[in-house]
Design goal:
mainly beta; Jelly Rolls; 12-stranded antiparallel beta sheet; 86 strands; about 50% strand
Amino acid sequence: MKANKILFGLLLLALCASVWGVDPRSSVKAVERQIKPQTYQTLPPSRDDILNEDFNGMQFPPAGWSSYDIDGVSRQWQRNTNGYHSAPACAIHLEGGWTSGMQEGWLVTPALNIAQGIEYVLSFWNYSGYPEDGYWHKVLINTSSGDPSAPGWVTLWQQTYPQTTEDWSLWNIPLTGYHGSNVHIAFQYTGEWADAWLVDDVTVTADLKTLTMLPPQGLGSYIPAEGTHAYPGNTHVGITATPGFGQTWDSWVQGPVENSANSRTRVYMDDDHSVKAAFTPYGLDNLVNQHSIGVEAFTSVKAGGTNREVAENFSSRVDAINKVVIHGITLRYEYFNDDEAQWVEWDPGNTQPFIVRFYNQNPNTQPNWNSPYRGPWNVTGKMFSTGTMQNWTQDYIAWKVELDLPQSVNLDSGWVSVQMDRDGGAGGYFLWLTSTSGSGNGVFYQLGEEEPEMVGDLMLELWGEGESGTLSAPVLNYPVNQTGLPKPGFKFNWRVANTGALPEYYILHLYEEQNLYPNDPSYSWEVFDVTNFDPTKDPQLSDRISFDFGQRWFWAVEAVRGTSHAMSSVSYFETQNLINIPHEEDFGSGEDTEWPLDWTQTHSGGILTNRWKVFESNEAGGLPHEIRSTAINRNGDARLISPPINTSGLGTFTVQFKHFWDDWSPGLTAKVQYSHDLETWHDSSWSLQSGSGDDLGTRLAHIPCNGQPVTYVAWLTEGYHFCYSFWFLDDIKFYENPVDTIPPTISDHLPPLSTVRNDISFPITVDVADDDWWNSPLAGVELHWSSNNGSSWNTPIAMTHGAGDSYTGVIPPQNHGSQVVYRIKAWDIHNNLTQTRDYSFQVNDPVWISYSYGVGTTIMGVEEIDWAPMIGFNNPLFGTGIPLQLLAVDGMAVDFYGEVGSPAVISVYIWDGGEYMYSLFEPFEYYFPSGQHQVIPLAEHGIEDLLITTPTFFVIIDLPAGHYFLWNEAFDYGTSYFWFGDELYGREGGNWCIGALVQIGGEPPVGLTAPQVSVAYEDGYVSLTWPHVPNALAYNIYGSNDPYDEGSWNVLDTVNSPGFTYLQSDARKFFRVTASDQENGSKAVFKPYAPVSSKQAPSLKSVTLPQK
């Protein structure tokens, strides 16, 4: 047996498991409350980098970053896994091809706040491939915008070229002169067939100084903790000293602190500094130490006058009580009332006023509150911060309150009450803590408030002089006959007996077999001052114990005072079992909703309760049962943790799970993580951001073993837990050599339009790629097709792999009357098959052509002014010499209320690719019944034999303000526009549901030939003559002094007969004559109809129309 003396001075705190529960989807009412942090200004500031990006995540650009492809051709910034500074990825801008021209790409950070008074440094790793060809790499900064076109960009750094070495280099750039600004930093690549630029591990950090917290005199702890810490230079750092168990504050005995007498003070970080504190013992016996839930005690709350009295019963061996120590936490109380929050109005100082009373009454009966045994005494409490709370966010500060009594109290059982003798402020609370284990309740009070009684022991210490006499055996609290305990270790917890003399110390005994109890323990530790101990974290490394997986141990605690000993009863515990790969967890079946063996869960931050529970449901896609996490109106983290997994000898393994993410709003991240010790957690390859929509399916995560023999896997929710409704998991599988079960994906397909052409083939092009996780090679991509609407199917066509992920198959020409149906199938080498839905098109004369297939998904329009949807059609007969005849158009309009219908004006324009497009007939009015699809034959409006010979024609439907038109979001052919006032805009993301009924037309119109001009001098002037051009009605004569400058040509005259005399005297003059089929000499247009109006041709402007 080994015996070790352990001196424990600091009583560690943990908050209750639940204070108030909030329905995650209940409407917020004025009477509801939510505990929020009280800001503690003297805590050290966060030392996190304000930017730290390694580009290892799958998203690119990373969240908050932006990438701009200025040239719009060839290359742009992208994620790269073929070379990096830190594995597995970096950012890269590749060189363009030799025909790509000058490349320019910007990679821009999120907005970064450069705080006042702190010096920050930008650091990044830089690599140039083909450095001898480098052209221009820059890092720039802007205080107003991250848009490359915005003014104000200033160069911070520029790469000098040509370079000769390909290697990673670190650059550190001070960000001086930008204090108090929100800045964007940009990495600008410029080059033509130049180098490749790789950037990795980009950080913006403060210029740091070190603060060393030296080991104190006496027992106690610090905030920040003992050791060396880094802080921004020329800033104040708050430091706090907290006395340990049985010790009180003395002073700061070393270091440039602002006030050496205060336990909370500051250090100015103008240089590296070291500080040291001193603590002194109480010099008293510990009579009562309630820091865990007692089964026989309860807490009563007295509402009295303007403040509230919190009482706790006690029982001990007391000669005299001289000091009361109690533990609490500062909170604020936020009311939701017209979005106005009531905030805490005080920040506890080093001392606070309290009122203390003692009552001599039975512990099981509330005392007579009006007749205290001793007191009331006004006591100035010494307040010591014990740090941030386990399971709470950093801004919740816990306190140890020392109350030195003005008189000794001789009372070995009864009640002690503590009342705060001041106003906590509107919404201010001081919450008494009840448990270090995190499983207790808390009692809080505020000025004039009535609160319900809450059951549980307060964290109470009584100090003074104790009785002598016979010892009683301690009572074991945790673990008591429990299984599934973590192998890395845990804290054993017991309490002193209610009768008998006080122990001087305890001995914790561990037994490998129950029959060794009580006299033959396998291990023993002496524990002083406290009633809890974790033997896996013994301060003496040589005295620590390590548990193994799947072990059963027995334990007991022995109380010692002088030569007297008292042994507790014995209890057992079992550690988690190690599971082997492969392993599957389906969370039970039938009526079994028991928690799965050896699975655990944790919560931290503001999450006070466990979030995961087994339910008899199958939302994730498996069979009942499954496990579910539920939302709560709090910030923090919650983990579901697998049993320990035996990964000895494994390099990696895979986790496969079915899940359903019931989404709500942005603000929460779901992740799969892994750990080898349950302390340090690493992100896996899988994550999900809330606000992106519901997610259902089978997902995979890649888990590196890092040479470790044991690995844990966790499903983490991180952030504001009101941003989802539920997260369901089922059929979790752990594989060493998993099989790819995910099929490829087929994307970026635009089906061909129906056509009148029976002499052309139909290329079908798609992008096909395997999933990002497996990226298994594709085994085949096929085009399956039928020419008779699916009545029979032809031999599948093997699609040919082109550039990137592109695959193409060609359907041969089809006879008129054919209804072609086709689908695309793709599979990988593991025979994971996927296929598209069925697509179709017709070959006929006449035939309807449409980019929306007559199916709308929404309606859009303009409410303020008149507007017009416009769609362009490619002429399938252009280039054949045969005109296309337009017979009818169709569509559907909706008025704002869906009741009165929409008056419209319909026109058709032709376009030859020039500056203008022309209408071939006077627009006609048409009335759309609201929400009804309409076919509009042109002949019914006096328009017959409308022949089109240009490559493009447009259908325009003018609508009044407040009217909408049918829109289809399934495909985007890039042919939809709309008129908004006098401006024409492109509309992306789909197509207007406007169709055109066309057929093969008659003979094409006859064009005009160019005039054959002769030049002569008559009476000293230039005379131009030419033969008459058939079908010409006028001739335009142009003149220029520079024939190669197209802008210098001017119209000299328009004549209706062949001939022109130039009556001016110029040193030289060049002439040009054109024929026109218009009497006024306007531009010739080949058509059977004369143009009646013109519009500007389509531009590239784009705006978003409102949807209704």
